[in-house]
Write a structure and sequence with these properties.
Number of helices: 3
Structural class: mainly alpha
Strand content: under 5%
Largest sheet: none
Keywords: Membrane, Signal, Transmembrane, Transmembrane helix
Number of strands: 0
Order of helices and strands: HHH
Oligomer: single chain
Shape: elongated
Radius of gyration: 26 Å
Length: 98
Amino acid sequence: MHSSTSSRRKSFKLVAVLGTTSVALGSAVALFAGVSPAQAANIASQADTQVAVFMVPLTLLVLVLLFEVARFALRGRIPVEVQPRRQRRPEWTPRRGG
């Protein structure tokens, strides 16, 4: 039996490996820096940290949206609304009233 992996599956494997590696590396850095769970909870309870944890991903999302809008606008081909295609009855459907 021949099984082929699609490029989509391979890219997911790459993302999974990179994500796992970055989590392990981040944990090792925190361990070597001496960050304990109590210290991490203390840092997370501060208002500045909570605002940063909320605002940084939101700001990145807005920047990505602005980039995509600029990319479409600078390309000069803004997608137009296309009329839906007329539904054609397949040949095997029974005709009514005939």
